[in-house]
Design a protein that fits this description.
Blueprint lengths: L2 H25 L10 H7 L3 H23 L2 H8 L2 H13 L4 H22 L10 H25 L4 H36 L3 H22 L2 H22 L9 H22 L7 H5 L2 H4 L3
């Protein structure tokens, strides 16, 4: 593994984790009527703290894009999942909660899962799939699932809506990471002309804005401990699927390696859940907001 890719991915994770916490600190006080409306983003833009969190998130995405340009998505995505460690660190500072057994167990599971998956799978580059049907089928399925989850959350307006929205956003961000990787390849091959003659950079922008709206709506309606685990778990899984599915990433596929890779991914998800549900994660007014407020409009 390249030291540059490691440093870029971990730096991106730090920016993302800190940015998510700052965004949720503000979004939790947004009016319920802004749920899944672009008015929510317009209202949040007036708050400097939210703009600071968004700047950190954009910086994290930029660093992640550079990491994706220099390394396989199946390698970078598990490292980006460590953003939850940095989110917990900032949340712990804000709340004064100790790490405790749950925090240490989640840390060990997440760090151990990332290490296990990378060591067992040994992600490496290969030849990207040229079949456009397979390419767009994988992307279409994941975007379709994300939109279905968002639609379900909007219709149901239950306490599970933030989880559904965060999962949908995570899927979109995973697809965005895959298209960012494709855009980086096109740029290296033909510069800006090759980059902007394809639809990938525009899809990256559209996915980013849509994902941002879904994430902020999830932050608005529930504490971070409900939304961030789903977001953090869905993104690497979607990214790895794209990487293996059509970007040409290769993993070891013998029986032993597959077993360890599955165990690593399970540990990553388990660590994400433990850390995301940690008492240090901020709750604020969103946790006390009655379900009937989510059912307005």
């Amino acid at each position: 593994m390249s030291l540059l890719v490691l440093l870029l991915a971990v730096s991106a994770a730090a920016c993302l984790g800190f940015g998510f916490v700052l965004q949720q600190n503000v979004a939790r006080d947004a009016p319920p009527s802004d749920f899944l409306s672009f008015r929510l983003l317009l209202d949040l833009m007036r708050v400097p703290r939210w703009l600071g969190g968004t700047a950190l998130m954009v910086a994290g995405m930029a660093l992640g894009a550079v990491a994706l340009g220099n390394g396989e998505i199946s390698l970078v995505e598990p490292l980006l999942a460590t953003n939850l460690l940095f989110a917990l660190a900032l949340s712990r500072r804000q709340t004064g909660q100790p790490v405790g057994r749950q925090g240490w167990a989640g840390l060990v599971l997440l760090a151990g899962g990332v290490s296990t998956f990378i060591l067992a799978g040994r992600p490496r580059g290969g030849t990207a799939v040229t079949d456009p049907v397979r390419h767009w089928l994988i992307l279409g399925v994941m975007v379709g699932v994300a939109l279905a989850l968002a639609g379900w959350a909007k219709r149901s307006r239950t306490t599970w809506s933030p989880v559904l929205l965060a999962t949908a956003a995570g899927l979109l961000y995973g697809v965005q990471d895959a298209l960012t990787r494709v855009s980086s390849i096109r740029f290296r091959e033909g510069g800006f002309t090759e980059l902007f003659t394809g639809g990938h950079p525009y899809a990256v922008l559209a996915l980013g804005v849509t994902g941002l709206l879904l994430v902020q709506s999830a932050f608005e309606t529930a504490p971070l401990r409900m939304s961030l685990p789903a977001l953090t778990a869905a993104q690497p899984l979607a990214g790895i699927l794209c990487g293996v599915g059509f970007l040409g990433d290769r993993l070891h596929t013998d029986t032993g390696a597959l077993a360890w890779e599955a165990a690593g991914l399970a540990a990553i998800v388990g660590g994400i859940v433990l850390l995301g549900m940690h008492p240090a994660m901020p709750c604020g007014t969103a946790e006390e907001r009655p379900v009937r407020d989510l059912q307005r409009n």
